[in-house]
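Can't paste images in this forum, so I'm doing it all in text. The chain is below; anyone willing to post the predicted structure tokens underneath?
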Amino acid sequence: MDDDTEIKFTDSDRNGSIVKLLCARCRNKTKHTVILSSSEHWSVNKGDMQGIQDYCVARCNGCEQQQFCTISSSTEDMDEFVDSKTGKHSLEYIEIIKQFPAVNTNYEKPPMYLGMPHELRSAYDETYRALCEDLPKLASIGIRMNIEIICTLHDVKGKWLPQRIEALYDKQIISIGMKEMLLSVKEFGDKGAHTIEIPKPIDLQAAWNALNILMLYIYGTKDTNDYYKVKKAFQTKKRKATPDAKSSESVPESKA
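Text version of the structure:
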């Protein structure tokens, strides 16, 4: 840290104040009450640049879920204000609010998320965090990576990802419509990894939805499939133990 930088921590006067934050549970921007806070005051070159950052714990006034956020302002972030009555010009501080962890209400995890294999769930989590942190290129690469991991978990062969997606279809793990969808998502991920183009939000949302459809198709019906497999095995065993009326009829003895 530079010798001409001064930092001082003090009690904050934000306790009890209201701040609007995105609530992950309410899935909307709601009013939050600050219940705990502390202030950091900093200055550089004896006040040539200065600012304040408040560290806050805030509670949603709707669902009461608590979140951590920072509220900062400085001489480097100011906006000019003109009084409509007097025409007088003045400068006002711009408050910058950041939440930790970041909340993004545009993307959701599917209900069968916890039922995924551990290796896949870890990669899926990283991709979801990239989406929430508004890191579109990392998120697009992550979506493609999830498809790669699914291919590996199902032991499909192929040197390139399109060949492995085709193998998923050949093994009847995915439908032909889903195969075409995954090939498009693969191309989307390639652009994120190999070009300077920033993925568009609408394309990112479509790719994320496609990944979740794939997860639901493969893992969402696992419990249902297991149930019917057990049920079918039980019924087969029961039929063998108790033959039906037709099969239980005595066979006439052949006449010599």
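The CA atoms of residues 21 and 29 lie 5 Å apart. The chain is about 40% helix and 25% strand.
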